[in-house]
């Protein structure tokens, strides 16, 4: 399998597609039916508003990428909230809390025709504590007559309300200008340097249990699928709160489709998988633990490694795995998955919920590794000792010397070795193994590329 490693090295040298750029996040909050979705569609420049006319229909928290005046940002539509046992007010307040954790700026949408209700007042109390900029939108101001309704919204104590008609577009340009003013150039650092929730791809061959797992993680059976799903321009992502942290699961629209398209040939499924991985920072590759590891599983894993994303392996359907199968699986893993020995494994069941709580800590570990940089001093201290004990094998009578190393990149960690000659793949693999023994990097691919100085 040395040739395989050589391929990875070449991919590293090419420096293929970079992870997505950091984008600031705008959250849109408000009671059901005030026009959040209509407004979000307007902000995204969609001609056709996608709106649910039934009040109280459960919608996902979804994230979209927006572009205005050359600046990119992410819009999070926190959706219509089903009043829970504690009532609508607490549900919307929780939504506002969530927005504060997720966003760099917040838009609070109020139906100007209705005015501020007790719910808006409760939300405003939450938002006033927030350190994020808040813009109050007085929505449904379709014409000049509506403007009179707007002034009363000053009482929310969140500054000047902006009259807008999400439906007709009135005032939406001004709103976007104000949004850009409110958003920082670069997102704040709480989520790591990418800004916003960390991006996760949930991938695996068909029927492995991706949508079941997503449903389990979001804790709801989502039979309602947002209509925006399926547009290729804006794959719809889901925000999922796991273990006290909000995560952005990318392109979950495809997973949500109840009726899976028969025309979705393997080729297209594979393109979609690749796109999801590339849009993400970390991938959960779901493998069916109850069946032998297949070609298709290995292909998906290879895609993750080749795109240089962090990786968590999850063996699903563990409820069906008995003693015999477990032994068999261990053997398969030893045989087929040596290449990704650095990836953590979680044995889950989307059906029973077994161990799904372990996914978030593993995602964090993998991303920490992915973000880690070893200082040049430490790296060379380690390397000098290692090379003194195990010098690289000579080739054609000449012994290559490793002059020094530096970690040129994170995401994924990429080590560049400056040498006086070619290093054999076997030796590079040895270096990687030793490197991981010292520095860990659990859950992240590590690339080692060699620059030969003549
Ligand atoms: P959400 O639940 O807050 O996302 O609200 P929706 O976007 O689903 O809108 C709820 C209802 O209000 C729909 O019937 C929309 O057509 C209507 N609506 C939304 N924006 C406006 C607006 O600017 N003017 C008017 N007249 N109606 C609007
Ligand atoms: P997807 O194509 O990857 O989204 O897979 P689905 O989530 O649609 O699941 C495919 C089938 O596997 C469905 O019949 C699920 O009920 C079943 N399934 C998913 N997860 C599990 C699990 O953990 N245990 C068992 N026994 N069945 C599961």
Describe the 3D structure.
Keywords: GTP-binding, Nucleotide-binding, Repeat, Ribosome biogenesis. GTP 1 binds at residues 30-37, 77-81, 139-142. Belongs to the TRAFAC class TrmE-Era-EngA-EngB-Septin-like GTPase superfamily. EngA (Der) GTPase family. It comes from Saccharopolyspora flava. GO terms for molecular function: GTP binding; ribosome binding. With 454 residues, the chain is of the alpha/beta class. It has helices at 2-14, 36-43, 88-102, 118-129, 172-182, 210-218, 253-256, 266-279, 295-306, 323-336, 359-371, 376-389, 425-439; strands spanning 25-29, 62-68, 71-77, 105-111, 134-139, 162-163, 198-203, 237-242, 245-249, 282-288, 310-316, 344-347, 402-409, 414-419, 447-452. The protein has a twelve-stranded mixed beta sheet, sandwiched between helices. A three-stranded mixed beta sheet has the order 13-14-15. The protein is elongated and about 90 Å long. The structure holds guanosine-5'-diphosphate (2 copies). Residues 30, 32-38, 51-53, 80, 139-140, 142, 165-167 line the site of one guanosine-5'-diphosphate (GDP).
**Alpha-carbon distance between the two ends:** 28 Å
- Poorly predicted spans: 1-17, 47-60, 189-194, 221-234, 258-264
SSE topology string: HEHEEHEHEEHEHEEHHEHEHEHHEEHE
Q: Ligands bound here?
A: guanosine-5'-diphosphate
> Beta-sheet strand percentage?
15-25%
Region (Disordered): 1-25
Keywords: GTP-binding, Nucleotide-binding, Repeat, Ribosome biogenesis
Binding site for GTP 1: 30-37, 77-81, 139-142
Domain EngA-type G: 24-187, 198-371
